[in-house]
Design a protein that fits this description.
alpha/beta, Immunoglobulin-like, 19-stranded mixed β-sheet, 12-stranded parallel β-sheet
Length: 733
Amino acid sequence: MPISQGRLITCLILSAISANTWADTVLVNTTADITADDASCSIREAVSYINSKIIKKATIDAEIAIIAGSSFTFALDTALVTDALTAEKAKATPDAAEIVRLEGLLKNIQDKYNASLVALNTELQTQENELVLEKGKIEPNAVKIQLFNDNIATLKAKIKTQQDAKTAKEKELQDYRSAGINGCKSISSDISDVIQLQNNATPYELNSSVLINMSVSIVLEKPINNTELFNLEKTGADIEPRTIIKAIGNHALFVIDDGINNDADNNPLTAITYSSVIFTGIDLQGCGTSSCEANGGIFINKEGLTINNSIISGGSASNFGGAIYNANNAIFTGNGLLFKNNQASDGASVYSEHTAIFISNSLFTQNTSLNGIVTAANRTSHSRGSDYSSIVNSTFSGNTGTAISSRDTLTLKSLTIVLNSNGINFNNEPPFLYSSIVAANSQKDCLNVGAIANDKQNITYVAHNIYNTGCELSPVFANMEIYNPSHQKLASTVKIIADTDVNGKNTGEKCAAPPAQGLLCPLFDNGGLTKTHKPRLLVEYKTLSESPIVNKGFNSNITYSKCPDLDQRAKARTSCDIGAVELQGLISSTQGQDITYGQKATFDLFEKIGDGELLPAEQCTALFGPLVDGYIDGCLRLLNFPTKGVVSFDNINHQVLYNTTLPDFHGFDKFSYLMTTTISRFSDARNDQEVKIDVKVVSDPPGTLSSKSLDSGTTSIFSLLMLSLLMVWRRTR
């Protein structure tokens, strides 16, 4: 009888038949969406090849299992038919024809098993043992010996036939993979199936949704070095263009569905058989119109979907999930993502029917929804407070609609939620909100739509957050037992976002210089994969403890509430700052530059000071006493003078300038300068308040430049010392 595709895949999962993995890597070599028997391999054809290969392998594995006698179906089918036969015979009026049919099926199953390698080898061993016993008798029976020899010869011939058949089936699969389908073939084998996209400035276009019904990773042929966490939006001549998959019609890009119901309550045997689909380093663009799909403008996910290091934009849905619709019992994991310009009635970026989502180190901006930008919809059986369902180390900024709408127990930790229509919408279940900034949202920072049940367990639900309005313990959290909340409402006079510096290099983004007010800088590339709101230490603070952000996070030992080890930018958290960004100190204590005769060396002060800002000149006297010529911003002073040139400070552009005094100077010159930042000023020792920067300038004749200057990107022993000191002064305040 024919075996269904689902049955074949189940057999593949449950039967360990083949020693070979048979996982393929397939290279997509065209950006067009085609299906044709040619030399080009499109995304759609690559998915089809992997799926067809899996089905082919499942078919051959099932056939090999029958030949080998190791098939799960022997035991399963025997049990099913035996039960049916027993039930039929137990009837008051048994159906004789049905009994004959079932007995025939049993015999057929037994005959197939008897012809298998396992059964044949077992019988061969039995015959050989009987032969030895007969030969060992005082008076052996020659007739029996001949019979045993004949049986052994027959069995060996049958075994060889079956072994040849098994080998032929294995070769059939090898030939199938070598030939490929529609220009797609395996370029290598590995432990899992992989589809590679060529790094291409031209978008890969999809004319309609692609169904992915198996586990596969979709990656770049030449992966971007993830240790260099440059901003996803960064462009330039030295930056490789992003690789994009784009919808060119009103449809989702991908439907992730293997056809197996993952409902644990009704289908416990298949609940763990999620297909796993992973996208890494590839941007995903929706159709860009008012509605790409009813649900899931870019992804309709019914399995386990993971996306890493990607820009997800232009998705729209008339109902749920402008970018991603996470269906019942599906799982979504996202890390290092930028969700931008997505829209839906609910869940502009992500809508999850259950709270089976884990999102980290991501930015949500310029998305539009009547309800949540991310919505976790329904109550589930997932254990409350686990990190299985959570949003961590992420920023929601400049979205129209509520940033997060949670109708279940979703862990929210180390978030920056600012400048949205609303902050967080809690409904029905107690929230888990830790170490987060929820402020400057135009309507309310916290909303409570449904009643939150009274829970008398001594659990910390809400701790170490700062907010403007709506997040008070009453009425949103009125019925909850809250232990040590440390939940701080900011005064109405506190400015959340600093103004931008019109003189800055990035007008409209860069913070205005101190003493400008504002706890956070505007969205800016502060390192890492996405833009962030960098926290600030205001000049009016007399002690570090006056900051409502720095060192104020919930640094507990409980897994679901403790501060993450890294921030949104993948920077180490030396203590635990509230929000998605941990304030960082000195980056490096060295600068260097190569010049030719007559050139001027220019050094940017901001490239070395981490997240700090130059201390305003008017603050310097109180720290270091009066200076004859007066101070400039950063309390800048030369410590060691150059011998072959002169140094000056540009207080407007915040630069250090070096000019050689010799027109044909060939060699190197060194000097050092001191500066003080809004971070370093809180160090206990004066020597630590003044950051020393060592500079080396190398001058060569024109056309002979070489890299002999001090490496500005290398972390020196001094800089490591400064980072250690940063940890000390933060933890002692």
